[in-house]
Amino acid sequence: MTIYYSLTFMLLAAEMGTFCALVAPLPYAVRKRLFRFLSESPIVAKIAYGLKISFIFVGILFADALQRMFRVTAEADLGKGRGQGMQDVRTETNFAARKFYAQRNVYLTGFTLFLSLVLTRTFYIILDLIHTQEEYAKLKQETAGKSRSAGAGAGGGAAEGDKKVIEELKKRLAASEAKERDFETLKKQASQNAAEYDNLATKYNAATGQNSDKRRD
């Protein structure tokens, strides 16, 4: 295998390892840090730019390998049609080897290009998922904070309402107690007036010598 196909194979192996790392069941915190590093690091951005250029060359190799495979297949079919394959085993073996190498190069370069597209799409899907999870967590925290604030505000309003009711009841109780005190004072004054009237009536009857029962209970 030539050097450029060897480099293509190394690139394919690196893509396979990267894909396994991306889809591995990592913890959320580790995956978040990893994708943040991959998406924000300037070094990774430079590497990605170099890989884009290399994929252009891989695409050229894919087109060349595909053309070679078609040409070798056509030559092999032409040789079989003429009957040369049955007469010369070495020629048939040579055609089979050329066809195998052409197909191998097509598969190698094709899978490298295909996996690059899969890696790019998978990376952005997972990155969008992480951003969505972050937004959901922030929205959940904001909703919980608003709920607590609303609950605290409702509790404060209820406490203020209770204070007002208590103050009103205290005022009514104080007014009732004042009225009761006034009633007790008036009752005492009435009792004292009745006792004084009875005393004066008794003295009047004793002075006049009349036996009159005009006292009130």
UniProtKB/TrEMBL annotation:
PANTHER family: BCR-ASSOCIATED PROTEIN, BAP (PTHR12701), ENDOPLASMIC RETICULUM TRANSMEMBRANE PROTEIN (PTHR12701:SF20). The keyword Nucleotidyltransferase does not apply. Pfam families: Bap31 (PF05529), Bap31_Bap29_C (PF18035). The chain crosses the membrane at residues 7-27, 47-66, 106-127. This is Endoplasmic reticulum transmembrane protein. It is found in: Endoplasmic reticulum membrane. Residues 166-214 form the Bap31/Bap29 cytoplasmic coiled-coil domain. May play a role in anterograde transport of membrane proteins from the endoplasmic reticulum to the Golgi. GO terms for cellular component: endoplasmic reticulum membrane. Residues 1-138 form the BAP29/BAP31 transmembrane domain. GO terms for biological process: endoplasmic reticulum to Golgi vesicle-mediated transport; intracellular protein transport; protein localization to endoplasmic reticulum exit site. Belongs to the BCAP29/BCAP31 family. Residues 159-186 form a coiled coil. Keywords: Coiled coil, Endoplasmic reticulum, ER-Golgi transport, Membrane, Protein transport, Transmembrane, Transmembrane helix, Transport. It is a multi-pass membrane protein.
